[in-house]
Amino acid sequence: MKRFFSLLLVLMLLPVSVLGENVQDTLMLGLVSSRTYEIRPLVPQERDLVSLYGLVYESLVTIDDNGLPQPLLAENWTETGGGSTWTFTLRENVTFSDGTPLTAEDVAASGNWILALANNSDAADQGFYQNMKWTVSSFKALDERTVEVKAKRDYYGVLYSMTFPVVHATQVDIPAPLGTGPYVISAFEPGSYMWLDVNPNWWQTEPQVKEIMASFFPNNKDLITAYEYGRVDSAITRSVAAAQYKSGISSLSIAYSTRQLEVLLLNNGAFEFEDVRVRQAIRYAINKDLIAQNVYMGMTIDADTPVPSDSWLYYDQEHIFVYNPEKAIELLEEAGWTDSDGDNIMDRVVDGKKRNLHVRLFVYEDPENDVRFETANMIVDMLAEVKIEVKVTTMTYGEEREALESGAYDMALCAFQMDVVPDYGFFLRKGNSQNYCRYVSSEMTSLIDSLRTQENQTDFAYTSQTIQQQFANDTPFICLFYRSGAILTRKMFTTVRTLREFELLRGIEAFGR
Question: Residue 482 in contact with residue 258, Cβ under 8 Å?
């Protein structure tokens, strides 16, 4: 451990003005971590730790820069039974870090352990990879190099579920299991640091970066301060405070995409939002770009529908999703709402009585910042311009979730953490548990069911685009944008085109080749 303390001391004394350069053999990395006490790659407790685990534990399939599944531990795969059975053939001569050969039994044991936890209704935490239970029934080793995966449905999305980490079959339920990746964890102190060294038995070319020292910080403020004072080479953060750091001579700010979709939910069962024209009016009345720039400091990725604009599945419908308050007023009037008494609030007669267009907006506030509360206030002002009166109520996460589940709300600002599998049925299909908007569409339900039976990339993409069109027509809720984060760094360590949350160090193993 002497090398850790001496290296840290040297880096603390370096001037911050050192010119940016390519990483050499060592990288000092900073990230937020305060809840990880054991190395458990199959059940990670914190999002940024998943990126570190990705350097130690590999998966059958990886997702490339275009968002498409590609071979990793598996050299190829085939599907039979119309997509109900997937057979993966492992690469030859892959070993764990101790030299033990990787076998199909290791893959099957890792996958089945994740499934068992995911299907355990009594478990307090069903795990980071729990959504696999919706696509996969079981794993089976057919021989040393062949894994059979039984799918829940004939579904191209199964390939995305194959991105879970593979550990040794005898170590699925113990801390710090063996992995096959380019690095090994040589030291770990919870809440303090993790030290990664090159895996001498890795099956690919030895990485140029020999050591990665990850320092843990309790919050983003301390992390960014450490970066400012040169205590770390690179800092991973989703804090909007990172927006102040622009790429320059001595420092780079590399944006990365997250799976966090910020939304404005509309209760389709509420009187005010039963008419699709009112929901569409809300869409036209909200200036998402202004919110993104003024509140989130540009740390967002456009998303008019649940599909982000940087996805290979994205279908451009820009002419529909434009800020147009005049169009909003036109739609409201078509739906029967007018300002009959000149008080700047739309109204209409219902059962012989005048009813104002007044709605409640529930907001759950992130303890680390107040971006959602600021967003709510901007939405209040924007809807006031089209004569919709909004009252904001701030509540706890638990209170807002209870309101969503019971349907006792009008509008709600919240976020969905999307799965690696590009499937949107959990909040769009009729009757699903997270369809908090009470959205009912036989067309959408049919499209979701169709998506889940597509066996190839082309048909999957076509159905996904049709879903986006249906979403635009029905406007069940408003997609604001996906959050993005930033890697602040003085040392370039990757050349990959697209960096994504949970794999933020992707490409470091190939840098310099």
Answer: yes
| SS3 state at 368 | coil
Beta bridge partners of 413: 264, 363
Per-residue pLDDT of the chain (513 residues; tens, 9 = 90+): 444 444 443 333 333 333 458 999 999 999 999 999 999 999 999 999 999 999 999 999 999 999 999 999 999 999 987 778 999 999 999 999 999 999 999 999 999 999 999 999 999 999 999 999 999 999 999 999 999 999 998 889 999 999 999 999 999 999 999 999 999 999 999 999 999 999 999 999 999 999 999 999 999 999 999 999 999 999 999 999 888 887 777 889 999 999 999 999 999 999 999 999 999 999 999 999 999 999 999 999 999 999 999 999 999 987 788 999 999 999 999 999 999 999 999 999 998 999 999 999 999 877 666 799 999 999 999 999 999 999 999 999 999 999 999 999 999 999 999 999 999 999 999 989 899 999 999 999 999 999 999 989 999 999 999 999 999 999 999 999 999 999 999 999 998 988 999 999 999 999 877
How many CA atoms are closer than 13 Å to the CA of 313, on its beta-carbon side? 26
DSSP per residue over 443-495, as a string?
Answer: HHHHHHHHHTT--SHHHHHHHHHHHHHHHHHH--EEEEEEEEEEEEESEE---
d(CA 231, CA 303): 36
Element (H, E) at 111: helix 104-118
- Spatial separation of the C-alpha atoms in residues 379 and 415, rounded to whole Å: 16
Q: Is the separation of the CB atoms in 341 and 347 below 8 Å?
A: yes
How far apart CA 168 and CA 160 sit, in angstroms, is 21
The sign of the dihedral angle between the CA atoms of 332, 337, 341, 344 is negative
Contact 44, 65 (CB under 8 A): no
pTM above 0.85, yes or no: yes
| 406 CB-near residues (< 8 Å, 6+ apart) | none
CA distance 61 to 275: 44
